[in-house]
Every structure is written in structure tokens, then in C-alpha cells.
């Protein structure tokens, strides 16, 4: 709960001030505890495969050079890859649009 209050969705610390009596201690301990903190994936239905920081410290979409209008079509959840539904989604929603551009 406190983590969500003081971090952005991508996991970066907020850049503005929010008062808290607990936050200075947590901020001090973050470098020590961060390597031991991770995601609980569960069924993966609530985790955005491309935009959430579930696999690396930055979203996967930042590793791929793709035009912004194509990112709107990338709606896969982690569960799509767990169940291997992604190929069907990719072919039906994005592949035809990518081929038109290429």
C-alpha cells in the first residue's frame, strides 16, 4: 500500500513531495530490500505484458522500437503468454496492420 502511494505504475519513485512519517525509513531501506522484492504473477490476467514492470525494472515496451499507434494494439496480458493465446491475438489484431505498413 505504501509502495503504491510513493511510486509510479512503472515502479519509479514519485518526483513530488507527499508527507509521511514512515516514508523516510522505507526510502532508506529500499536499496537493501529491492533485490528481494518481486511480482506474484498468479494467473497473469491483471498484468499488462508490455507496460507493467513484471519481468524487468522497466516495461518491456521500452526495449522495442515500435510506432506509438501500434502500441495501442498491444493489449496482451501475462496470462496470454502463460496459456499461449498471444499468437492468435497477435495474428488477428496486429499482424495485418504491421504488414500494411511494411
Q: Could you explain how this protein is built, in words?
A:
The chain folds into two domains: 2-36, no CATH class; 60-101, no CATH class. The protein has helices spanning 2-6, 23-33, 68-71, 78-82, 86-101. The radius of gyration is 17 Å and the shape is elongated. 40% of the residues lie in helices and 0% in strands.
Condensed summary:
With 102 residues, the protein is mainly α. It contains five helices and no strands.
Q: Topology, please?
A:
Layout (H helix, E strand, L loop, with lengths): L1 H5 L16 H11 L34 H4 L6 H5 L3 H16 L1
Query: Which outline best applies?
Result: elongated
What number is the mean pLDDT?
78
Number of strands: 0
Helical segment tally? Answer: 5
Classification by helices and strands:
mainly alpha
How far is the first residue's CA from the last residue's CA? 45 Å
Helix/strand order, N-terminal first = HHHHH
Helix proportion range: 40-55%
Rg calculated over all Cα atoms: 17 Å
**Strand residue content:** under 5%
Largest sheet: none
Number of domains: 2
Which stretches are low in confidence, meaning pLDDT under 50 for 5 or more residues running? none
Highlighted features:
5 helices; elongated
Amino acid at each position: 500500500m505504501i509502495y503504491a502511494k510513493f511510486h509510479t505504475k512503472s515502479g519509479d519513485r514519485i518526483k513530488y513531495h507527499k508527507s509521511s512519517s514512515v516514508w523516510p525509513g522505507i526510502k532508506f531501506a529500499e536499496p537493501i530490500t529491492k533485490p528481494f522484492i518481486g511480482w506474484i504473477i498468479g494467473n497473469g490476467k491483471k498484468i499488462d505484458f508490455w507496460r507493467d514492470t513484471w519481468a524487468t525494472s522497466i516495461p518491456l515496451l521500452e526495449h522495442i522500437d515500435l510506432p506509438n499507434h501500434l502500441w495501442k494494439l498491444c493489449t496482451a496480458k501475462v496470462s496470454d503468454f502463460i496459456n499461449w493465446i498471444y499468437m492468435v491475438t497477435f495474428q488477428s489484431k496486429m499482424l495485418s496492420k504491421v504488414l500494411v505498413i511494411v
